[in-house]
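Section 5: illustrative case.
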């Protein structure tokens, strides 16, 4: 499997894995749950989000709110088979269980 090197590490987000992990976790932890009029996060069945994707220093805290609302309890990430043409992104499929 070919792995693409991160092209924006060190500019749009930290190039130090422990620092990046700590930042991401801190933004997710800052999202309160439960939310008034919503309840605990993620809301059951929430399968689509709209999240900002600018550099993490700009959009990380806002994106954390979106990702904290994504219910992946019945979904899993499934890589697609190797294509004959340009690579395809992985697909999100319903859980087989």
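Designed sequence:
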């Amino acid at each position: 499997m070919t792995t693409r090197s991160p092209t924006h590490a060190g500019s749009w987000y930290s190039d130090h894995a422990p620092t990046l992990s700590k930042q991401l976790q801190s933004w997710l932890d800052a999202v309160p749950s439960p939310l008034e009029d919503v309840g605990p996060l993620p809301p059951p069945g929430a399968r689509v989000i709209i999240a900002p994707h600018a550099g993490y220093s700009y959009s990380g805290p806002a994106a954390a709110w979106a990702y904290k609302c994504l219910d992946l309890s019945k979904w899993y990430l499934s890589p697609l088979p190797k294509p004959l043409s340009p690579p395809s992104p992985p697909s999100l499929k319903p859980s087989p269980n």
